[in-house]
């Protein structure tokens, strides 16, 4: 299957089964905006739940935060975003389309390879021939809005382009209200907004997206910084691998000096082999004491940590692992998509989403073998019980069991439970595994525990 076809198939499955819909479709849509449907919103929640569990719940040294999307505009002055959070923009003099200059350069370098529709649009001008671009100029990516009733400059505000700054501005609050000790982290998941010049590739690059970020505060020392930088690269990598992402699709790329953001002394991207090319999933940056010092300067308030042991007062350094939730979701969907060639007991063309059970939106489907002799009642009461345990389940009694399996395989449900005549005799059901297609009998009483054990609480 070629790469364009694979993306098309994923986009179409996502819409058909309720993972991701084009946004505002009723009104002709809004380019590059998406809504997450019943299955998609659940899957996205699962990714966030696993992240929070891994990096906040399970740890002693990281606390959570949920800061406002609209902050005092001075925050963005201090952070440097107002001045330098921009991408180089070029405009075609013939068709007036605008692109990111670095993306155009990248695509030019891909001559001879298979280009996506978006990539081709950067080369071929609809007015004929190739584009004729202007010189690149800086375009600030922050979305402007207004607070209050007058639209004057005094009321200008911005939608946050990253969640990180809300963490820095709450550094002192967290120090005062908790008993964290260095090294410690503050974690946040939330929406961020960027007026991207060239959004695209489905949910990979959108103007509204979700980030999961940690600012991990450490002693102000270059050696400490490199140690924690390496540590977080490994941790973030394991996050994806432990959720079943294929090792060969995950890459780590260290930024060249010239690519580094205005605040960073070292950054690595965790990249994924997407059908449209290898692209960033997450970034781990050494931000030194840049942000806290900027906020000290602009706010006039001290943002220092008092170290009991060394009796020293200092502005800590920070290492930041930052990932996009929507990009993670796309990568997990691509990674899990498996179309049978007919040799594995499935018919050719049948699709199985081999999602890790923790990510699967529906954990188990419950089927009565037939719609009579009390089997639906038994199945329904089992569904009620599983729901009471907090497990996402789906009840289905229509069509043959084979067809019911296929519907679940396509959305990644790891287990299908069938209530049959033997259930009435010995109170056991068959559990069929999506990947091995093997069936085992499990006692009705034990089924919730059986599922729970395999999910470690991510229900
Ligand atoms: P890119 O180079 O792709 O524009 P970036 O390096 O600017 O990304 P960061 O500022 O490091 O991205 O943001 C951290 C993470 O947030 C990224 O690794 C990515 O997963 C996610 N992210 C950033 N921009 C977008 C976007 N427009 N749509 C979806 N996710 C995004």
Note down, in words, how this protein is organized.
With 459 residues, this protein is of the alpha+beta class. It has 3 domains: 272 residues, BirA Bifunctional Protein, domain 2 (2-Layer Sandwich); 55 residues, no CATH class; 105 residues, Anticodon-binding domain (Rossmann fold, 3-Layer(aba) Sandwich). It is built from 15 helices and 23 strands. It has a 7-stranded mixed sheet. Strands 20-19-21-22-23 form a 5-stranded mixed sheet, with helices on both faces. A 3-stranded antiparallel sheet has the order 5-4-6. The longest helix is centred in the middle third of the chain and has 21 residues. The radius of gyration is 25 Å and the shape is globular. The two termini are 34 Å apart. Bound molecules: adenosine-5'-triphosphate. The site of adenosine-5'-triphosphate has 16 residues, from strand 10, strand 13, strand 16 and helix 11.
Distance between the termini: 34 Å
Unreliable stretches (pLDDT < 50, length at least 5) are none
Binned strand content: 25-35%
Level-1 CATH class name of the largest domain? Alpha Beta
The SS-based structural class is alpha+beta
